[in-house]
């Protein structure tokens, strides 16, 4: 493993951004889906809110380096912005905060664990980021208590299911295609395999 | 975004993209701290005027873009109106409880969502990605490896859309049975992601060979600086903000100054 350059290499950055842009398209499509579900009321829409955190989880699981979760979330949200999101500039700020809090969680595990638990915790971090913004923007604390509780539970559950469990299963499927081998830095097991 | 739509270059296109981004982000943060609905309504109307007359796009297209915003306005406002807390009851039906306070708060949030959307559209309609990233490198010292990666990714978008169409057709021809929407998403996501990762790796090797990753002493094909339009941009928004505040406080539509 060459560590001549500090931080991320161009290959890591480009791959992260390209993946993120794909999720940016999904984020954009997710807007109308979210509005459609919203019509049913009772915060059912919050169950699918977690899709907007998935770029961070997937990029982290794929590339496994510090900073990619934040970069992915920023890239996905700016992709969404450039495509003309109906939420406008808001998505960029949400993206930065969500990515930052997911990154904090991954950093807390020192970028050494890549399982459902860590990614789910990352998704919860991102959710908290989105809630901080909602608190300022949408006065969510002024909802009736039962309604606020429903709102919060739905968002957290949705985030863990989509950006935790689904993200892991997506990356597992990608591993079978073999593309992940060119992304990840060589691990200790790889070196051990050479000695055998 | 490059729309295949004919548009006129307006003065907003010629402003410095980094400056425009900073000004608009600043306004975004300012809107978060407006709690007086009168000020916010004035501000949103001013943005709407700019959107209509200064983006240089045809009316039909602007109207089409504007439709989803109305939906956002309604959906954002309605849940606060129906479930928000308040004292002066207007209407109660089961769990739905509309009060004067929650109604006004809902209205305020609706206008806030509207002004965010307009700020975003003003930016994305009048900024071309190439100018934006060149400007970010020159004015805000964004590292070239990040900026060029973004630009490369933007260029890959059409290829990705084409691939999406191919996968879609392939699945149709094979007559796949539906296994729920998560499974369906995977069927699209796996080929798209794996192909894109491979492509990104190849492009990255080529870009590194061409020294796109080095950041020492670069020269740029596009030199992006400042001009008179930038002064106009700052002056205009300073005026709009001041005017919205003044008229909102002195000539209110609604006798409420704080929705919290």
TrEMBL record, chain A:
Keywords: Membrane, Transmembrane, Transmembrane helix. InterPro entries: ABC_thiamin-permease_prd (IPR017195). The chain crosses the membrane at residues 7-27, 47-63, 91-109, 116-136, 148-174. This is Thiamine ABC transporter permease.
UniProtKB/TrEMBL annotation, chain B:
It holds the Pfam family CbiQ. The chain crosses the membrane at residues 21-53, 59-83, 103-126, 231-254. It is found in: Membrane. GO terms for cellular component: plasma membrane. It is a multi-pass membrane protein. CDD domains: EcfT. InterPro entries: ABC/ECF_trnsptr_transmembrane (IPR003339), ECF_transporter_component (IPR051611). Keywords: Cell membrane, Membrane, Transmembrane, Transmembrane helix. This is Putative ABC transporter permease protein. The lineage of its organism: Bacteria, Bacillati, Bacillota, Bacilli, Bacillales.
